């Protein structure tokens, strides 16, 4: 089995760590800004996402130290559109999640056929993040329509 390019793998893992930490902050921040009838389940969902992002950040960080490298203390980009409506919050989250998904795909490209454990990790995360993006996409659809939300480019435009 070919060796992994440790430096390249750690660089991607650090980007993943930063992006997941940004997710913790973003979901927590948004969870303060939900008002109206749907508040309770939506706040619970956002906090659950913050918790999941934290677990993902911890997994990426553990991999970095497993590889004998130093984990980044930086945090990924944080957008705040200053909008309180749920659709904007979800659209922003979906955009960020798609960015994270790209990083996991990048990780997979670096480790595929070179490290069973890291490949397993990358594939598992791609699976998790794709299901997550699909769930957010469903939340953004109009009730009564099964087509994917137009911004994902997977379904017909509205
Ligand atoms: Fe994640």
From TrEMBL:
Domain of life: Bacteria
A single MF term (Gene Ontology): heme binding
GO CC terms of this entry: cytosol
SUPFAM superfamilies xrefs: Ferritin-like
Lineage, broadest ranks: Bacteria, Pseudomonadati, Pseudomonadota, Betaproteobacteria, Burkholderiales
Ranges where the Ferritin/DPS domain occurs: 11-141
Keywords of the record: Iron, Iron storage
One record GO biological process: intracellular iron ion homeostasis
Protein name listed in UniProt: Bacterioferritin
Xref: Pfam families: Ferritin
């Amino acid at each position: 089995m070919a060796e992994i390019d440790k430096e390249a793998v750690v660089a991607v893992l650090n980007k993943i760590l930063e992006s997941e930490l940004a997710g913790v902050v973003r979901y927590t921040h948004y969870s303060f800004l939900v008002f109206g009838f749907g508040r309770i389940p939506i706040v619970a969902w956002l906090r659950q996402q913050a918790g999941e992002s934290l677990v993902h950040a911890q997994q990426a960080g553990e991999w970095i130290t497993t590889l004998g490298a130093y984990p980044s203390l930086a945090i990924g980009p944080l957008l705040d559109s200053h909008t309180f409506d749920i659709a904007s919050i979800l659209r922003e989250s979906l955009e960020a999640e798609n960015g994270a998904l790209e990083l996991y795909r990048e990780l997979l490209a670096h480790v595929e056929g070179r490290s069973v454990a890291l490949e397993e990790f990358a594939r598992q995360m791609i699976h998790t993040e794709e299901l997550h993006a699909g769930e957010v996409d469903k939340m953004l659809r109009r009730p009564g329509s099964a087509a994917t939300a137009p911004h994902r480019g997977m379904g017909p435009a509205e």
